[in-house]
Design brief:
heterodimer; A: 427 residues; alpha+beta; Cytochrome Bc1 Complex, Chain A, domain 1; seven-stranded mixed β-sheet; globular; B: 416 residues; six-stranded mixed β-sheet; five-stranded mixed β-sheet; 15 helices
């Protein structure tokens, strides 16, 4: 077992090592807190579901928590509540995730408990129908949220039918899943290979490594799957709905987190959309009063990424909103100023410092950084990368890599016309 | 341990701070006693409209300046309006305290220019349309209207499309002068705060707030025989094409000063928490509902208990019977010692975790100081949680659930 240590400050080094079964354990002590948090990511995302069983990853994630080791479903919840755990679980494109924040003294027991959940769940067959109903409820609810519908369809068009599938699954997929499918998915994908456990908070690093070894050291391991390729292309699609607003989603391809140019790209999106003086907020909402919500943000998978944007506005102003919003993106490199970049830099710097107040937020960053780039990133390293950016670098990046192949989805009473400036790429 | 300090300035502005010099950040907020409850019919939506206008420029700054400076301070800031207050807040690194206070205080002397008012009217109308598209499609507002009547606490925070279209900038100025008086405002601060500097700066910067003219102008009492414009009181709402049925039930609950409030919160957790509650095991874990939960909402002098159910429309009657059975059983037999101890452990841990971030503490401290002039430390809150007994819970259940007095709003597909 070889440990690597990155120093952020003497009291808060990030140390990580790999258990012999391949599971990576990362620890960052934050001795000024009273809490500890863990984030456990398993390579069991929706991209590993068979095409006809959309929702299998989510249903498995639900079922493993319905009893494990020597505990029934109800006992698990009682123990978690008594340990004071504020917990979360869910699936993403690539991973199934379990996490919790709690008073620091609960951590060892919590780790032990979650090792049972992911290693020895009961997967009780008599609860499969209940869990299936639960997943269907989520799909139905999601369909009642126009914003979610637009953004989900957009992700599908952006990444293609496989990588862009819904984390909630489909009604047909959920209905078709059998107990055997569930067992197979669990057996094949819940293992230590590529699993990441990140812990942050009022902890002792060596002690956490020892607890991790005890809890997860005997977990089986299998070879990891590589993610499928993205297959999305530029397009426009309208979803008919009697909604009050027209909901507009748009996306274009970009580089993923971990790419050497990532922060040059990210700074551009920050200037467009982070904060109340950002261009979209200022020019689309504040100056023209076209909408209440207008945003753009970056989303990364391991090999692929996208900039995803949204604006919601009443039908009579929707065409103008779409045009003004896309126009702001198209002219991002015009008149980029030092002041805009500096505001974004201060914003990120403040966020990074304030992250030191939350063990849950640190644990989650440690796990996602490691998943994306294969190592943790210290707060200092991030600060340096962001502080060293120049306006010229941001402009050069965006001039060389302009947005193209827009995917646009609208939902509302009538379709819109994609702006002519980008229509060559929107078939 | 954090230290609590408070003072009242000669102009009446109150300042309350929970100071912890170990913090990485400091959070600040103006809590203004201006909410939809304070509005008359012609003012409906003004508290919230004003909240937007505070970002639209002052005598010293343009709207763009305000937004730009907020961003320059790296502040995680925003504002919100409720039935009883409007809050402007930001969390910043301690080195930015004086610049943030300068900015927030200036914002609270807004220019309220006609052109900005017209532009923002459109944004508010968009905000109203946005919520019309979102579950539960106005059901909470409707339940408040039914329970409290369409005025007072039942008045919609956003106003109605009708009231916003009719609004005038001069009416807004009048309302501003009436509500934004220093005696109606608290500055709350948490985290790594320099209290003495804060008091000095506020004393200088807010001195002129006492001079705001106080005229009621043409405002007169509302005609209670009529409904305010844009309001109807149907308990049944239909939304074309929605998949789920949405049920909101509202009944009486404890106020912010009620001795019952901790027992009520714990009871709500036992009945309706996301994991491990009675409703969770009966309705969520079984997949019979997407949401089934309860919570008490405390106002200054009264309160409401909400019950919220989201499920397949076909399952609504059976699920509602199940919820009623849970209430009946708790009124009759109370809760078990095991349930209480589990929820005590969960609530205590939650209280400790919440206390770690100054931004989390700000709202409780500011609101409580504004309405009750009272401060509770994290340890006092822990003590209040831990001292709740089975008898307290049983008594709360009888007080609020035995009568069956409540209103219900249901939203379903228009075709159902």
């Amino acid at each position: 077992m070889r440990s690597i240590t990155l120093s952020t400050s003497p009291s808060s080094e990030i140390t990580w090592n790999q258990l012999s079964n391949g599971m990576t354990v990362l620890v960052q002590p934050m001795p000024w807190l009273r809490t500890a948090a863990f984030s456990l990511a398993i390579r069991a995302g929706v991209d590993l579901e068979p095409n006809s069983l959309g929702g299998l990853s989510g249903l498995t994630c639900e079922m493993v928590q319905r009893g494990a080791g020597s505990h029934s479903s109800r006992e698990l919840v009682a123990i978690q509540d008594n340990l004071g755990m504020d917990r979360s679980s869910g699936v993403s494109i690539s991973t199934s995730n379990f996490g919790a924040a709690m008073p620091a003294e609960s951590l060892q027991q919590a780790m032990q408990l979650y090792s049972q959940i992911v290693k020895n769940p009961h997967l009780p067959e008599d609860q499969l129908e209940d869990a299936r109903m639960m997943c269907l409820q989520e799909i139905r609810a999601n369909d009642d949220e126009p914003t979610h519908r637009v953004m989900q369809r957009l992700r599908q068009l952006h990444y293609g039918s496989h990588l862009g599938r819904s984390t909630l699954g489909t009604r047909e997929g959920i209905a078709a899943i059998t107990q055997n499918d569930l067992r197979d998915f669990f057996q094949s994908n819940y293992h230590a290979g590529d699993a990441i456990l990140a812990v942050a908070g009022k902890v002792d690093t060596q002690q956490v490594f020892d607890w991790a070894e005890t809890a997860f050291g005997d977990w089986k391991t299998l070879p990891a799957h590589s993610p499928p390729a993205a297959t999305g292309t530029g397009t426009y699609e309208h979803l008919e709905s009697p909604s009050s607003q027209t909901h507009i989603g748009f996306s274009f391809e970009t580089i993923p987190y971990g790419h050497p140019d990532y922060f040059k790209m990210r700074a551009g999106i920050g200037i467009l959309s982070d904060g109340m003086s950002s261009r979209l907020f200022d020019r689309v909402r504040e100056q023209k009063g076209l909408c209440y919500t207008v945003t753009a943000s970056c989303h990364s998978l391991k090999q692929h990424a996208g900039v995803f944007g949204y604006a919601g506005t009443t039908p009579e102003r929707a065409q103008q909103t779409l045009e003004v919003t896309i126009n702001e993106i198209e002219k991002l490199t015009e008149e980029l100023t030092q002041a805009e970049l500096e505001r974004w830099q201060i914003r990120i710097q403040s966020l990074l410092i304030m992250e030191q107040e939350s063990s849950a937020s640190r644990a989650s960053s440690l796990a996602s950084d490691y998943y994306q780039i294969g190592r943790p990133i210290t707060t200092q390293e991030l600060e340096t990368a962001i502080e060293s950016l120049s306006v010229q670098q941001v402009r050069d990046y965006w001039v060389a890599n302009p947005p193209r192949d827009y995917r646009i989805v609208t939902l509302g009473t009538s379709p819109l016309t994609p702006p002519s400036t980008i229509s060559s790429s929107v078939n | 341990m954090p230290e609590f300090r408070e003072t009242t300035l000669p102009n009446g502005l109150r300042i309350a701070a929970e100071i912890d010099k170990r913090g990485y950040s400091a959070a600040f907020g103006y809590f203004v006693h201006a909410g939809s409850r304070n509005e008359l019919d012609p003012q409906s939506g003004l508290s919230h409209f004003l909240e937007h206008m505070m970002f639209k420029g002052t005598g010293n700054r343009t709207a763009a300046d305000v937004n730009r400076e907020l961003d320059e301070l790296g502040g995680q800031g925003n504002a919100y309006t409720s039935e009883e207050q409007t809050v402007y807040y930001a969390t910043v690194l301690p080195k930015f305290q004086d610049r943030l206070i300068d900015l927030l205080s200036d914002m609270l002397s807004p220019a309220l220019e006609e052109q900005e008012f017209e532009t923002e009217r459109q944004v508010i109308l968009e905000e109203i349309a946005k919520y019309e598209d979102q579950p539960p499609f106005g059901a909470f507002e409707r339940s408040m209207e039914l329970h409290f009547g369409p005025r007072g606490l039942g008045r919609r925070v956003l106003g109605t499309a009708e009231s916003i279209r009719e609004m005038t900038a001069s009416r807004m100025r009048e309302y501003f002068n009436l509500r934004y008086r220093p005696e109606n405002i608290v500055m709350a601060a948490t985290g790594n705060v320099d209290f003495d500097a804060l008091v000095d700066q506020l004393e200088k910067q807010t001195a002129s707030w006492a001079d705001r003219p106080c005229t009621l102008g043409g405002s007169s009492k509302d005609d209670s025989a009529t409904s305010p414009p844009g309001i109807n009181l149907d308990a049944q709402l239909s939304m074309p094409g929605v998949n789920q049925a949405y049920l909101v039930r509202i009944g009486h609950g404890p106020s912010e000063s009620s001795a019952n409030r901790y027992a009520s919160r714990l009871l709500a957790s036992i009945i309706g928490d996301e994991g491990g509650s009675r409703m969770f095991w009966d309705l969520i874990d079984t997949g019979r509902a997407e949401v089934a939960t309860v919570w008490p909402h405390e106002f200054t002098d009264c309160g409401a208990w909400f019950t919220y159910l989201v499920c397949d429309p076909a399952d609504l009657p059976a699920n509602r019977r199940q919820i009623d059975a849970i209430f009946t059983s708790i009124v009759k037999d109370g809760v078990t010692a095991e349930e209480l101890s589990q929820t005590l452990n969960k609530a205590s841990a939650g209280c400790i975790m919440q206390s770690e971030r100054p931004s989390n503490r700000l709202f409780g401290i500011g609101s409580r100081w504004l309405t009750q002039n009272e401060y509770q430390s994290t340890d006092q809150r822990l003590e209040s949680i831990k001292s709740v007994t089975l008898d307290d819970i049983a008594s709360v259940a009888k007080t609020y659930f035995a009568t069956g007095n409540h209103q219900e709003v249901i939203v379903t597909d228009s075709n159902d």
